[in-house]
Specification:
With about 325 residues, the chain is mostly helical. The chain contains 15 helices and two strands. The protein has a two-stranded antiparallel ribbon. The longest helix is centred in the C-terminal third of the chain and has 27 residues.
Length: about 325
């Protein structure tokens, strides 16, 4: 007996964001990374390929990379989070106050994560149950978190005096030559990939971002899903703040400056649609590595930062144009 049901449309069947193999965009990013490596090798052969410089690139990519994982989930789910940089600053400042440092390493890390989750909870409640436009809600959080971070720190750098925290940033703590910060970043990426591609949460995220009304009719709790996405973004901000504290040995209200732009840009060039419904963790990570490598090359060659920003802007525009071109085919 012939079935009356039509085969599932790709957008509603197996989401494109769940495919593990590299797609054309990700292969292009790998090509860009190879090209940047060639440029670095030709211009600064003794410095670029040095193990210390490669560790530096990965370390610098780790903090913004963790933030980008959270932002990727939010964008795939049809939202946006402009507050991530400010939340990182607030979490880093709150976790490095004298009172918090009295609780040692565990207390500082827990405080950082809880602050991130708290900010994510506020964002999620305003957006999912407010209901408030994500752009406005997270912009308000950006201003509030920056202001609170400035008030707590009084505009001063809060130096970490807990030896257990400082020890994690020295070479003796490296595992097989890899800094603990990079290992945490790798773990977050693996968990993020599994969450997006191998769980019901990931499938619901793609569905809500692609068509929230159809998702609601299919029985998905859209509001709860959006709340969870912003909680996840806040969690990533808290983890990133902890990594930043370990990396710099301090907390500052200026931490995380423009992280929101870097994270969104990395997700976009990695193939995440701003309209939601499609994206990959792997693509976002490659985007972070591209931007970090560009920054490293400019620093090694003593080039002006304004040219670096122009290059990043050009890459973002090109990525968006490619997205629009593929969506019309």
């Amino acid at each position: 007996m012939a079935s009356n049901s039509a085969p599932p449309h790709p957008a509603h069947g197996k989401p494109r964001s769940r495919r593990f193999p590299l797609d054309v965009r990700q292969l292009s990013l790998v090509g860009v990374l190879i090209a940047l490596a060639v440029v670095g090798t030709l211009t600064k052969p003794d410095e670029f390929l040095a193990a210390e410089n490669l560790r530096l690139i990965l370390t610098q990519a780790s903090v913004i990379g963790v933030v980008t994982v959270g932002v990727t989930f939010v964008i795939i789910g049809g939202g946006i989070d402009l507050s991530v940089g400010a939340v990182v600053a607030l979490a880093s400042v709150w976790a490095t106050t004298v009172a918090t440092q009295d609780f040692g390493l565990g207390g500082m890390l827990l405080c950082s994560v809880l602050v991130g989750l708290g900010c994510g909870l506020v964002n999620g409640l305003l957006i999912a149950y407010g209901p408030m436009v994500p752009f406005i809600a997270t912009l308000a959080m950006l201003a509030a978190a920056r202001g609170l971070a400035l008030q707590i720190s009084d505009g001063k750098t809060q130096v970490v005096t807990v030896d257990a925290v400082l020890d994690l940033g020295v070479q003796d703590s490296y595992v097989l030559g890899v800094p603990p910060i990079v290992l945490v970043f790798a773990l977050v990426c693996v968990i993020g990939w599994l969450l997006l591609n191998r769980t019901t949460f990931g499938r619901r995220t793609v569905a809500v971002g692609g068509n929230p009304e159809a998702s609601r009719l299919a029985g998905i709790a859209v509001k709860r899903q959006r709340l969870l996405l912003y909680l996840l973004s806040g969690l990533c901000c808290g983890i990133a703040a902890s990594l930043l504290i370990i990396l710099t040995g301090s907390g500052q209200n200026t931490n995380g400056n423009l992280y929101e732009l870097d994270a969104i840009a990395a997700a976009i060039i990695g193939g995440t649609l701003l309209s939601g419904g499609r994206g990959t963790i792997l693509g976002s990570v490659l985007g972070v590595l591209v931007f970090t490598t560009i920054t490293n090359l400019f620093a090694l060659n003593n080039l002006q930062t304004d040219i670096q920003q122009i290059a990043k802007g050009a890459i973002i525009v090109a990525a968006v144009l490619v997205q629009k071109g593929r969506s019309t085919t």
